[in-house]
Amino acid sequence: MARGAPLLWSVLISLPFLIGGGRILLGMTTLVYPQLLGWALIIFGLIVIVIGAYVQRTAPAEVQLSDNEYIIDRRHPTQRVATVRLTVGFLLLSIATYLTYFTQEPLAYPLVALILGLVLFSQGLFTYWANSLTSYYLTNERVISEYRFLSLVRKELPLSKVRGIQENRSVLETVVGLGNVQIAAGGSGHLEIILRNVRDSTGFADHLRELI
Fold it and tell me: What is the Cα gyration radius of the chain?
């Protein structure tokens, strides 16, 4: 099973779209919206539920360890970035709802807010689902990044080939205690692993520095 409760959150998030789409199809709005918009909202809500169920049933990839290999540190991306996008998207959708039901503004205004809200909401949802199935590992032999959504993507970097460690934090990430760690390999392959939006990124980087 995926970390957290993707199905539960997906169902809760889909409800406003299902209800809003149903109200448009039933003509329960003060403005006359095209029927196609109502169907689009309903389809979007159903897609959110289906993908949430898929993510819920998909287990994060488990790292396979060799003999005498053991895990030193394990990290997962936080959901704070996804939360910010979902929150902003929700605010825009709320503005669209307010303009629709409580004002006589032209139809174009709530439509613009609705489209922008849907875009940010979609980005936030995808980030949430992807983070639920992403893991970073540091063992005594290698660094591993594993991501599973529709397919498995795994990157492995032996510690003997690590040639660079770079930490990045924006002002906001510093305030909320998040950071990114970029680990680069030597040679011409330009292989690198990036840990994004993890807590105590310096701790992970320090563990890696001690090993190499």
Answer: 22
Over its length of 212 residues, how does the chain's per-residue pLDDT go in tens digits?
456 788 888 898 889 889 888 888 887 766 666 778 788 889 989 999 999 898 888 866 677 888 899 999 988 888 888 888 889 998 998 888 788 777 777 778 888 888 899 898 888 888 888 888 888 999 999 999 988 877 788 889 999 889 889 998 877 677 767 889 999 887 655 788 999 889 888 889 998 998 88
- What does 29-63 look like in DSSP terms, one character per residue? SSS---HHHHHHHHHHHHHHHHHHHHHHHSPPPPP
- Gap between the Cα atoms of 118 and 37, Å rounded: 12
**pLDDT at 24 (0 to 100):** 82
Start-to-end CA distance of the chain, whole Å, equals 34
Q: Are 91 and 113 in contact (CB under 8 A)?
A: no
Query: Residue 145, exposed/middle/buried by CB under 10 A (0-12, 13-18, 19+)?
Result: buried
Task: Give the DSSP H or E segment for 208.
Answer: helix 201-211
* Residue 156, beta-bridge partner list: 144
CA–CA separation, 205 and 178 (whole Å): 13
Instruction: Collect all residues with Cβ–Cβ distance below 8 Å to 90 and sequence separation of at least 6.
Output: 117, 121
pTM: 0.74
